Amino acid sequence: MTDPVPPVPPVPPIPDDPAERIRVKRVYRAARVSDGKRILVDRLWPRGVSKDRARLDRWCKEIAPSDALRRWFHADPQSWAEFEQRYRAELAAEPELVAELAALTATDVVTLLFGSKDEEHNNATVLAEVLQDAVRRGAGRGG
User: Rounded to the nearest 5 degrees, what angle is found at the Cα of 57, between the Cα atoms of 54 and 59?
Assistant: First the structure.
């Protein structure tokens, strides 16, 4: 006798507003169907996470903060506002990458994955805001 096949969980509906399709999540949290496209946005691979467990659709290291900025912020985490400003400047210099990620929201939820323990002050939260602004402006949709 074989075990019955468990039902496949339903795919949650995709929000109508593409800007609401951008989510942020620690890579250490379990992958869910509702994550949509899972994109790691850290320059370094997170410790202790296997590629199978990460279940990534993409590792976009090139959109992560530069090594110099990452190290600077790691040495002085109290400088969040300055980090955010500097990282936004780095992202502004990479409009093609921002548009490419923004375009993914046209058809699916996009979950930006990060390794930091701080869930409020990390590069993925800044990137999510930049992507939401890009989506609202029409970046990545030929507009």
Answer: 75
